[in-house]
Amino acid sequence: MNFSNEQLERYSRHIILKEVGAKGQQKILNSKVLIVGTGGLGAPAAMYLAAAGVGTIGLVDYDKVDLSNLQRQIIHRTKDIGKDKVISGKETINEMNPDVNVITYHEWISSKNIIDIINDKDYDFIIDGTDNFPAKFLINDACVLIKKPFSHAGIIRFEGQTMTYVPGEGPCYRCVFQDPPPKDAVPTCKQAGVLGVMGGIIGTIQATEALKYILGVGELLTGYLLTFDALKMEFRKIKISKRKSCQVCGAHPSIKELIDYAGPQCDLKEDHK
Amino acid sequence: MNIKVNGNEQKIDREYTVKELLDVLNVKMKEYVTVQLNDEILSRNDFDKIIVKDGDTVEFLYYMGGGSK
Question: Out of B40, B44, B65, whose CB is closest to A133?
Answer without folding.
Answer: B65
